[in-house]
Every structure is written in C-alpha cells, then in structure tokens.
Amino acid sequence: MNIGAAATRSGVPAKTIRYYEDIGLIPKAGRTAAGYRAYTDADVETLKFIQRARSLGFSVKDVGDLLALWRDRERASADVRRIAEGHMAEVERKIAELETIRLTLRTLIEGCHGDDRPDCPILDRLAPGCCG
Amino acid sequence: MNIGAAATRSGVPAKTIRYYEDIGLIPKAGRTAAGYRAYTDADVETLKFIQRARSLGFSVKDVGDLLALWRDRERASADVRRIAEGHMAEVERKIAELETIRLTLRTLIEGCHGDDRPDCPILDRLAPGCCG
DNA sequence: CTTGACCTTCCCGCGACTGGAAGGTCAATT
DNA sequence: AATTGACCTTCCAGTCGCGGGAAGGTCAAG
Fold first, then answer.
1. Is this structure's pTM higher than 0.90?
2. Strand C contact with B54 (CB < 7 A)
3. Contact B77/A at CB under 8 A
C-alpha cells in the first residue's frame, strides 16, 4: 500500500506520516523498486493508534512512549497509566486556566455596553490606572 | 529607561519586547547615543496593557487590534466587545474539547488497574480490534 | 503517448516566543 | 587607568506539530 492509501485508511495525512518517520516516531517504511514507501495493514494499525492518541491530546513524545509500551508484551499497565495520568493533569491544568480566563472575559463582556460610545470596561481592565 | 527596566516594570521579558517591536506590535523604540532602546513610562503602560491582554489569552494579532482601539479615543466599545466575544468563543471551544478529553482519560484511567500486569484498557482503547 | 494522479525530497512558514553566540557600553571598583 | 560584571546590541537557531508548495520521478488509464 502506498502512503496515500495508508493516510486515507489511518486518518493520518501523508505529510504527517513522513514527518513521523522523520522524527523517528515510526520506523522507516519499506520501499518499492521505484522508491515509494510501502505500508502493511499492521503499519496502518500503528498509524491509527497514533491518530487516536494524538486526538486525545497526547504529545508526540508521549505517543512514542505509549507505542513502545503497546509493542511490549511484558509492559506494566502502571507505566501506561502513569503517562495517562500525567497527561490528564496537564489537561486539567489547562482547563482551569481557560476557565479562569472565561470567567474574566464573561464579566468584562457583560459590563461592556457594546455600542458606538468609547467607554469600555474591557479596555479599562487592560489599562487600569491609565485611562480610568 | 533601558529595556531591562522596562521589562521588569511591565512584566514583559526584554527579549519579548524586542520581538514585539520586530513584528510591529509596538512602534520602534527611541535610541540613546549608544544605540540602547529608551522607554518612557507611557511605553511601560503599553507593555503592561499587552501583558494583561496576553495573559487573558488574546492572540498577538488581537492585542494589536485592542491596542489600536485603546489609542483611539473615537472608538466604539462594540468593536472592543466583538474582539473579546470572538476570543471567548474560542476559549469555550477549547474548554469543551479539553473537557471531552478529560472525561475520556478519566474513564480510561479508572479502568486501568495500574500494576505490573500488561493488560490495560488505555492501550485497548488506542488499538481497538488489534489486541483485544 | 499523453494525461493526471500519485509519489519523492527539499525547504519555508506558522505562533509566540526563548536561548545562545559574538560583540559593544556603562558604572563602579581597584 | 584598567578591569570587572552587568547590561545592551544584532543575528541565528530551536521549540511543537505539522502544512504548503516547488521541482522532479512514477504509474495506470485512455
């Protein structure tokens, strides 16, 4: 299977597959006589694995670690879990940060009449002590 | 005032101030005879404005637009509000995305016993139909 | 035998910085 | 007067995870 077919089947764009090969996330693909990369069904499964992990927000580095564990039949599930917990902590941190921002924005937007007059609590908040 | 003092007072790192000048977010600073950038208190206020807007997650492009409105005494608060609303929508979109991820991760982590055995619902989820 | 869809490598760009190298300047101390 | 060390300057490269596009080779269909 050529890279285009592997891309369609896995959901990972061809350019991204080449990139993953480049950075060593996946091993170098075999080549046809003409130099085309050749993929097997197993390769597509790996790509799907990567695609799902990425869509859960795991970093490419984490995905590499998860891939290694996936391939390792002797793995300890604790290792997998540790990676997932680390990622979830990061996700929760980001959510908290965004929630704080959202609350602030909501308050500011509610206070802004939003007409053609210049006075605006949003700008006042960004420049306290300066123009107000 | 030199860039270091402006950085300390505004909370924007010196490197970042130079970067902002480079990309045109702030006008080119005046120079001393020796070629050092010179900043006024008003410049520091501008940098503080930028710092606060960035800490609310506004893109540098949005910050540029907000700065222009801030400087415009004839502005319509509706324009400011529009920018804030656009940003809040984006923040809410990201929160929703992260919440979905968080829920999935929590479920997966809860299902993973996390010991030295290899079976793991997290990997099963990433590779369905492959190893289980 | 040509067309058009595929494939290859290559390098550049994004956003928003951050780090570091190589060199100039300034104020204080010896 | 010389030196030290903290500052400043420019420029280049790297981060992360790709995407765009150029220049060229390959392949199957018509």
1. yes
2. yes
3. yes
